[in-house]
Amino acid sequence: MGAIAIGATVGVALTPQQRPATLASPSPHDHIDVTSEEFLDSAPVEIEVTTSASGDARIPRAGVLSRADCRSGSALESGVNAFSIEGEPLLNLVMPLPLWRDLELGEAGADVDSLRAGLRALGDDLDEHGPVTTMLVKALNNRLASINAPGRVSGVSHESIVWLGSAVAVASCPVTVGTHLQAGDVIAEFVPAVESARVTRLPGGLAERRYVVEVDGQVFDLDKDGTLADPARLATDPALNRVRDTAAGGPDSPSRTVHGEYRLAEPLDVLVVPPSSVILAAGTAGCVISGDRQVKVRIVGSELGKTMVVPAAPERLRSVRVQPEASWTCT
Fold this sequence. Notes:
single chain, elongated, 5 helices, 15% helix, alpha+beta
């Protein structure tokens, strides 16, 4: 009797049980509620960064260095004083070309236009091209006066200006206060500046939407070909300039790579539906069944177990059919 009872108990334990309702497969006729979310269409990308050759700043005249506001990692700014020779302040000036001569009224040339460009960048109202004029001399003298440096009444002394090719970060300061310098001695060495940056391979995206790329928390606009816009910002932005210190591309290579995220500039509101609910058509077009209606949608993305769609026309969908009939087509 005891053995029979035990056998009966085991038999009950092995009898298949009914599958819980929560695990049962949905009926093809079932509808599921539609949810919405913000879609960024993001993808990891590699960005090729091209840097310039390293440059330097040189003292324009001989003498004992009496001031040197120069620190590794900082930037030498235009329009201010960072170096002085024997108590006389020198003016930092970013401009395309250095001055290689003193300039008198009426003289013209590439160096004069370069001086004009440097002062115009600081906000002075000067013509882009032209000879040395009293207006040009006055503009420079005002800048010199702002740092307590003497100017000239009718011309320009090239020895009053420290030429900077661009306002870039300092790599090293090879001289210290008290050093006797000769004209042309290096007083600051620069790290290479970022000249351009481009996404090496653009992911497929929504053609009518604007995309950006994010690097180290900084967001950059993109041109159509994947080039990061705003060249002036590229030269100074720390997120991109940090690639100078990476090994990618080699320490002496003008091209480096950095990783970033490619995404929509503004998130797109999308509807999230099961992949099985979409009746596929050509390309990214498709349809879903909501109630007894067929609604055209555009497929913008997919992840495991969900598809993101946007109705072709303004439409508020509350639910979609989970599994349309296999014979149905999107019309």
